[in-house]
Design a protein that fits this description.
single chain; about 190 residues; alpha+beta; four-stranded antiparallel sheet; 5 helices
């Protein structure tokens, strides 16, 4: 939460060459880069940028090589990204981008104030603001960022599938990991 509220943008995409043992910075200035997947044809990488809620595409083998573009802006905090065997890609969603995050990103003076508060108060307020309604835990998006499928939960099941950090599709099910749970959840598609 501190990384999101502080606006830290020190994330980087690095390329390591095992032959030369050198590391090259491909992209810097990323705000909580938190997921990376390669396209099935190897022409681009998808990056989940948690703080901004963006999915970015870094082109590898096309005339656009070495360029970065925004695929989609989400109203949630994306946490990891995986290609789907049925096409498109799955994005795990940690939480909805609440008012506290939006305000702290938009107003630096408020960011400084929030960072001075005990983190337990900020977490409690954020949790309360996000408890309303259904909780979307994962999205399957096409390569242009259009939603193909959304998995949402409500009621008691929200306690099981909270703070999703990983979604992997296998054999007609989603295997779901969470930074808050000591187990994997399985969601039948």
């Amino acid at each position: 939460m501190n990384i999101v509220i502080s606006g830290d943008n020190t994330g980087r995409l690095l390329k390591y060459d095992p032959k030369s043992n050198e590391v090259e910075v491909l992209v810097d200035g990323l705000a909580f880069a938190n997921g990376l997947a390669m396209s099935t044809d190897g022409t681009y990488l998808l990056l989940a940028e948690t703080t901004t809620g963006k999915i970015l595409r870094y082109w590898i083998k096309t005339p656009k090589a070495s360029t970065l573009e925004e695929v989609v802006q989400l109203p949630w905090f994306p946490d990891n990204i995986k290609m789907s065997p049925r096409g498109g890609f799955w994005v795990g969603l940690h939480a909805k981008r609440g008012k506290i995050a939006e305000w702290s990103i938009s107003y630096p003076w408020l960011r400084r104030l929030i960072l001075k508060l005990p983190m337990r108060h900020v977490q409690r307020a954020s949790w309360l603001l996000n408890r309303l309604g259904r909780q979307v835990i994962a999205l399957r998006l096409n390569e242009d960022g259009k939603m193909m499928e959304a998995i949402s939960v409500h009621g008691a099941i929200q306690k099981v599938f909270k703070s999703v950090s990983e979604v992997e599709e296998r054999d007609g099910s989603l295997w779901i990991g969470s930074v808050m749970a000591p187990f994997l959840g399985i969601y039948k598609l």
